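Field notebook, page 305. I keep forgetting to write these up properly, so this time I am using the form the group agreed on. The chain and the ligand, norvaline, are recorded exactly as supplied. Prediction of the bound pose follows.
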Amino acid sequence: MKKDLLKLLDLSAEEITAILNRADQLKYEKKHGIPQKYLEGKTLAMIFEKNSTRTRVSFEVGMFQLGGHALFLSGKESQIGRGEPVEDTARVLSRYCDGIMIRTFGQDEVEALAKYADIPVINGLTDFCHPCQVLADLLTVREHKAVLEGLKLCYIGDGNNMANSLIVGGLKMGMEVSVACPEGYDPDRQVLDFAGSDPAYQFSLVRDPRDAAVKADVVFTDVWASMGMEEEKAVREKAFAGYQVNGELMALTNPGCMVQHCLPAHRGEEITAEVFEAHAEEIFDEAENRLHAQKAVMCLLMEGV
Ligand code: CP
Ligand code: NVA
């Protein structure tokens, strides 16, 4: 049966580890000029109903490096934008391509696409989650800290797609996860239920960012207004005013604490320019690791199928 990557909730810790290990191997091969045409002759359709820089470029470059081809379909310019049902798009693309990557609004759209497609579907961001980003994040933290288990992951800001995926990914990998969100901006109920589903999971949702940051080994943040929430910008700026990753907050963390940001970043809002620049190497390693993590996902889903 074909496999998809729709959300981290669907993956076991072993499957996440397998992706990270394959990503390490692919990164090593790339850096040492070792051929890696594992997806020769295969095509990935990339559907974008929201903007992107990293996701588009890293999937397209990744597919090229693996010997395959990626094609860009903008929601607006394809028939999707004119209302063709996702069930039909799924069955048509299955006749031409070997995999589909989709970035869209509703998680239900991605799930429907996967249900009707005969080929693997990869979630490149929905309002609910951003699994590819968090696989790259886990890869980056593991590279810098050698392990994930036992580390404290802190997330400051909106309980959005990034928060949802970080909570699930971090807990599954044995990290302590502490999230600070203003009231009314909590992570998704399904994710909070997951976090409460196993007494072994060390999870806390707090209102004061300082409580989340204490003794953290890695601090994450993300924009206050995600794509599609542009009209809420002013209201959100007020709600999130105290939720900034700044020098004062970083002073509470463990020595050598990392900072990660999926990007794009809004300096002066969720993160200060000083903290961003002090951790720029880690943040751009994180951006680079999108490429390696997604190549691993594509190989594991599309190789030999
Ligand atoms: N982090 C991320 O997904 O970036 P893009 O929106 O540029 O793809
Ligand atoms: N939360 C952000 C992530 C962008 C990569 C958004 O959805 O816009």
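OBSERVATIONS:
- The first strand starts at residue 43 and ends at 48.
- The chain has a mean pLDDT of 98.
FOLLOW-UP: compare against the apo run.
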